[in-house]
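Weekly structure sync, notes
Attendees: PL (lead), two postdocs, one rotation student
Agenda item 3: pending single-chain targets
PL asked that the sequence for the first pending target be pasted directly into the notes so everyone works from the same version. It is reproduced below exactly as submitted, 104 residues in total.
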Amino acid sequence: MLTPDAAMALTRCRACMLQASEERGAELADELALLNDELTRVRAVAARATVREIAGGGKDDGVVPVKMHLEEASAPAEDTLSCLTQLPPTGPHPQGVLGCLGGS
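Predicted structure, written out during the meeting:
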């Protein structure tokens, strides 16, 4: 059993710990707000850089411009899709390969 003085000291200690915890929580909330602001700025800069890169076509030697890469990458995908649509419906997929894959 605690003496009245020990109980009072324990109560004060808990109050100090609670106050310190609340102060630390406030510090962390401020830091979180600061980091969120910084992340928003970084995202905006990255978006502007991406737009500039796509519009400008890239100026580095030996680097394929993003726009050209996207155009070239979409061509094989379209070829593959047209080949799949031409396959006859055989085997366990009576609706055809595209029907099995979720296509039309």
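Discussion points:
- Residues 43 and 96 are 44 Å apart (CA to CA).
- DSSP finds three helices and no strands in the chain.
Action: rotation student to compare against the earlier draft before next sync.
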